Hints:
39% helix
Amino acid sequence: MLGEDECMNSALLNPDRLWTRREVLERPGPVPPAPGVYAWYFTGVPPEVPIEYCHVANGEVLLYVGISPKRPSADGTFSRQTLRTRVRYHYRGNAYGSTLRLTLGSLLADQLGISLRRVGTRGRRLTFSSGEAALSEWMDQHARVCWLVDAEPWLTETRILKDVNLPLNLDQNTRSGFHAQLSKARARQREQARISPVLPR
């Protein structure tokens, strides 16, 4: 009989199925409005991302794991976000609110012809502007997701990061051989945005 941790890992590492962008964005959609962990698998990989030691399920490679909500703050503040809101946002939002989109866009910038820009009246929001549509299309073709309902997802996330090679995760993942390269790619995009004109929202 599998223990609780093994059952959790199995749901994410050996999922019964992986869901597409179109399926996730349907109403009401398959993603539950509950806390949990989500795992992102890819049929295509951004340039230079090392996948030799990555986990593969259903012929697709696991590159990133995230949670919703985040761990409560020290004062007990707790986010109201759920798996449903977070996974949908990764698929259709922008780089300002999605670290996954920021990462993918930074790695795919040359391939997709996009760049990070400051947008809005004060220019404080960083997005790929009109390039977000191209990034969404790329994710529609290549990004698949599964999830696990979990009341304390931050604990499961930490365990998975210790055991699984996840090159697109930065937080808690400094041991990754791709950490420095990914950080530089994101920093280059931020620097390019800083020196470029602000775009209207």
